[in-house]
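call fold target=Amidotransferase
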Amino acid sequence: MNGLSTVLIVVGLFLLGGIYSFVKQKMPKGLIVLLSIGAVMCLSAGVLRLDVWS
């Protein structure tokens, strides 16, 4: 299941890029918070699935 971990990490990084562009465009704060939560969830799930910690 290493492919799924990679996909989750890539999606998380993509969302982080979206957050950066939304902040620069001064989009609503609620949308930025939602994207931030999604990015953190994707990145953490991807890293945990890689079994780096065990």
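return ok
Residues 2-49 form one domain. Residues 2-24 form the longest helix (23 residues).
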